[in-house]
Design brief:
about 675 residues; alpha+beta; eight-stranded antiparallel β-sheet; five-stranded antiparallel β-sheet; globular
Length: about 675
């Protein structure tokens, strides 16, 4: 209690000082304007503030003249100091959740960071860039343990119930509850909440059951013991609270209490994607994109060691609840306008050496988590629903999505088994495009030692990965050769035009796209958003999507570009570059509904884990789907040289799979 009072006093003192800054002239221009505007932002963050005002200056219509924009900051404050102070400003935006959660310690830390920098600029001699970098770096290092421990505790401890109380105690028929989080709320967010409030109770129950049943069945199908678990991390986007409330009640029947972690607004807890925590609407994708590598400011060996140590210590404190944690249940949304980023030259970027350290850090953190929450004892589920921004036909699309998410798994399992029986006879699969698609790729398959007990492909039903509709494998890298091409695809919210990847022995050898006129910009775009700064990646997955119902739904409403990969990957053959689907679980036996063990869990690269686990994984997995209308053929090449056609000209031709063509033929 005394400690909390101390932080409250520090917050009060800091705000009193910050309130004086807008009228002061002790800092020379151009920096005076930066500190004045930042002070006004900090002073304006209050629980009763208009939600839009909290995000006003980073919204697309104001971003070109915002100090959060590295290019604008560089123009006004100098090429060195500008991007650095833009990163500081992005960090200070973490004050919003801190205020709404009454987190006085975080508030004090951020206010005092701002004041410390302000005092430096008040001096007669302006500080050097190195001094500002040192102050910012010291703040990150000094409070790294605090932020990491706070985040891990929120993931594992249901008593951190800020979100749970909002969901369970609010009148969800009144969308004003959305403003209690401190997240960005748009008209679409409100429309989603109002729509959800108006759905029949049985519809909401069915939606939640698909979500929670998938989570439970993930444990059942993998032979894992759910009865030992006590918590489940719920990840969702604001507006879906009515479904989440129902899910919380259903999880309680399984003996699970909910935990929630916010998408991290500060660098200490930053994740590569927003689905690492619950979130509101995205104020500006360009803002997120421009600040995605701000950790370069501190990415040295000492920081990597400190970050790993902080995670280790935090998990050790939470050892018991970590062992009782069941994993994440993710509710994704889709419908926002696809995003193609502008390439701002002043963005802070990681060097090759910093990128290497960051990858080492990500792998190290994953291995630490593995020790306390082993993949062999946890599971997950993920489901997606549209938001009103998707189309004027939102309500029809929503109902069709419910249908897609609740298709008969048993029926699909039987049809997909026909595909697997044919694929198990092959040593490779040939995939070719048509209608302008230049794909010509041969995927090498694992050999079977005992076909009566073993299989190569997993029969994916609607458990952890909803909706139903794919068979997938980890290819053999050696001998996997050729070109993968898609005319237009959306990967993690980023649009790619005319994307082409060539493979040699299963590794990407060349890549190109047509997003920008400048080839160098295209190269950087792929390097940052597909390769994730790796020099190359393996073909980690080959799959055949069978959910033709989802494909037809997308075509019917013209929303192909809006589908999340979760659904898009089920609408045609797809290929993932990066880690396999069995990453970190290769030694855990997996069986299909027919009882056969899936033996294709490794590739030549993942086997490195037996000697050096830190080098066996890439920390990424990006699915790229070829739509049926661009698909010329998928053919099994048998060991005796014979061939078994599975698809021809976008239609399933293998006997026993023709039923999948019914939606495609409009019947």
């Amino acid at each position: 209690m005394a400690e909390n009072q101390e932080y409250e006093e520090r917050v009060r003192d800091a705000l009193e000082r910050i309130a004086e800054i807008p009228a002061e002239t002790s800092v020379p221009e151009p920096f005076r304007d930066y500190f004045r505007k930042t002070a006004l932002f900090l002073l304006g963050v209050k629980k009763d503030a208009d939600n839009r005002s909290l995000y006003e200056d980073i919204l697309p219509e104001h971003y070109d003249t915002s100090y959060s924009n590295p290019d604008y900051a560089a123009e006004k404050l100098g090429p060195g100091m500008g991007p650095l102070l833009a990163a500081v400003y992005a960090e200070l935006r973490g004050i919003i959740p801190a205020v709404f959660e009454d987190d006085y310690e975080s508030c004090a830390v951020l206010y005092e960071l701002f004041l410390l920098l302000y005092f430096e600029f008040e001096n007669e001699d302006l500080p050097r860039e190195a001094t500002v970098r040192e102050i910012f770096g010291a703040y990150i290092r000094d409070y790294l343990g605090y932020y990491v421990e706070k985040r891990i505790a929120a993931q594992l401890d249901p008593s951190a119930d800020f979100v749970t109380k909002i969901i369970m105690e609010s009148d969800l028929s009144d969308p004003s509850y959305l403003y209690r989080y401190g997240e960005y709320v748009t008209e679409n967010t409100v429309k989603t909440a109002v729509f959800m409030a108006g759905l029949p109770e049985e519809t909401v129950t069915r939606m939640a059951e698909a979500y929670t049943r998938g989570f439970r069945e993930g444990f059942v199908h993998a032979g894992k013991d759910l009865s030992k678990k006590k918590t489940v991390q719920i990840i969702f986007e604001l507006g879906f609270e009515r479904m989440v409330r129902k899910a919380i009640q259903q999880f309680a029947e399984m003996g699970l209490s909910p935990t929630f972690t916010r998408y991290s607004p500060v660098l200490a807890g930053k994740s590569p994607n927003r689905h690492a925590g619950y979130t509101g609407a995205v104020p500006n994708m360009q803002f997120d994109y421009d600040h995605r590598e701000d950790l370069a400011l501190v990415m040295d060996e000492a920081f990597v060691s400190q970050r790993k140590r902080a995670a280790q210590e935090a998990f050790e404190k939470m050892r018991i609840p970590a062992g009782e944690h069941a994993g994440p249940a993710v509710l994704m949304t889709f419908g926002e306008t696809p995003f193609v980023p502008r390439q701002h030259e002043a963005c802070i970027r990681m060097t090759k050496e910093e990128t290497k350290r960051n990858l080492d850090l990500l792998n190290g953190l994953l291995m630490i988590r593995q020790r306390y929450i082993p993949e062999t004892e946890r599971s997950f589920t993920i489901i997606a629903f549209p938001t009103p921004g998707i189309s004027d036909h939102f309500e029809e699309i929503f109902q069709d999505t419910i249908r897609v998410n609740t298709l008969d798994s048993g029926r699909y399992s039987a049809i997909q088994q026909k595909l697997i029986d044919a694929l198990d006879q092959g040593e490779a699969v040939r995939v070719k495009g048509m209608n302008g698609n230049r794909t010509n790729l041969t995927v090498r398959l694992h050999p079977l030692c005992d076909p009566k007990k073993e299989t190569i492909f997993e029969n994916c039903v609607a458990d952890v990965n909803i909706p139903v509709g794919e068979v997938f494998t980890s290819p053999v890298l050696k001998g996997t050769e050729g070109t993968l091409h898609v005319k237009r695809v959306f990967l993690e919210d980023y649009e790619f035009i005319d994307l082409e990847l060539s493979f040699r022995d299963g590794m990407i050898s060349t890549s190109s796209c047509g997003n920008y006129e400048n080839e160098e910009e295209n190269r950087k775009y792929i390097e940052e958003n597909i390769l994730f700064h790796h020099p190359t990646l393996p073909l980690g997955e080959f799959a055949i999507g069978t959910n033709t119902t989802a494909f037809v739904m997308a075509r019917k409403y013209g929303i192909e570009s809006r589908l999340p990969i979760l659904i898009a990957e089920k609408t045609g053959p797809h290929f993932a570059v990066g880690d396999t689907c069995y990453s970190h679980e290769e030694d855990n036996p997996v069986f299909n509904p027919d009882g056969k063990e899936i033996i294709a869990r490794d590739n030549e690269h993942t086997l490195i884990r037996k000697t050096d686990p830190s080098k066996a994984y890439y920390g990424c997995h990006t699915d790229i789907t070829i739509p049926y209308e661009e698909l010329g053929e998928v053919t099994v090449i048998k060991r005796d040289g014979g061939e078994i056609p599975l698809l021809r000209e976008g239609r399933f031709v293998l006997p026993g799979t023709e039923e999948l063509n019914i939606p495609l033929d409009g019947k």
